[in-house]
Amino acid sequence: MARVTIKDIAKHAGVSFKTVSRVINKNPSVGEDLREKVEVSMTALGYRPNRAASLLRGGKSYTIGLILGPLTGYIEPGSDRSIPTYITDIITGLLQSCGRAGYHLLIEPITNDQIEAGAEAIDALLEDMTLDGLVLVPPLCDRLWLVDHLINKGMPCVRINPGKGHERTISIGFDNEAAGAEVASYVLRHNHRKVGYISGPPNHGSHHLRWQGFSRTLCEESDVELRDLGGNFTFDSGWAAAEQFLNESSDWRPTAIFAANDEMGAGVIAYAKSIGLDVPGDISVIGFGDLAVASQCFPRLTTVRQPTIEISRDAATELINAVAMRDMAEGKVVNHPYRFVERASFAAI
């Protein structure tokens, strides 16, 4: 079967071949009605762009990259650990936008995120792969040396949920500080005054904003006792922190625990039940993210839904549009709405 050409599409759509070319290359000057007309013809004729020819002409690769930080324990041969649900949600959203725009998604981890080794890894990747732009997620999106390195190389990038440096790039996320404050208000309304907090990794900037909103609002009440323990966003770290908070030898036991993500929240619930505590009768638990595990644990976890798939869809669309317009709109910040999700793991005292 002969390959469908731009001229075939132009004839089918009743437009000039220059108009078809502009649509294929995502030129923003094409009106929406005309663009849709051409795209309908492209679909009807089964058109697939010739990526190799585009590259030879100095055009776009129609590929964006998702760069992940070190995934030690996840990608080694023989590992039985799954990629965190948060990352799979990001990939889902990016793929949805890439598919609609005729783009491919390349996913690559870097094994070392320290400045010198990390810069070498990024440079090697960009030498091996032709990419139109990059998406950075926590914790890499808060490595400002990396952001500046990409900017200096002329590589367009969009960051998902960064905690700092918003003026450098397009940033897509939600208001972590406001969400943390809303969790604190919920805890106070339910009369809890001894509260435990399980943090995320120290290199996740968005988690620090979450903590700032939570701790500031909670401590506005003089009778509140707040203690925090470190976690790393895994079920096991939630279990370990709960063990410190809740075991019989502990000299201080909270009535409520806020875990900075749902996987740790599920770990808290599991540990509490393992020692015979009732959730929420003896200990109330709140997570964050509304990941799949929040609905799979028992009792189901009260949490804050961060719209990760929607945020990621938006990030890919912003990046693809910015590449087409050759305008990275540095400093643009898009915050999606979050939503408090009340389930069975939290109760008043």
Automatic annotation (TrEMBL):
It holds the Pfam family LacI. The keyword Plastid does not apply. It comes from the Bacteria. One of its GO terms (molecular function) is transcription cis-regulatory region binding. Residues 4-58 form the HTH lacI-type domain. SMART domains: HTH_LACI. SUPFAM superfamilies: lambda repressor-like DNA-binding domains, Periplasmic binding protein-like I. Signal peptide: none annotated. Keywords: DNA-binding, Transcription, Transcription regulation. This is LacI family DNA-binding transcriptional regulator. It comes from Aurantiacibacter rhizosphaerae. The lineage of its organism: Bacteria, Pseudomonadati, Pseudomonadota, Alphaproteobacteria, Sphingomonadales.
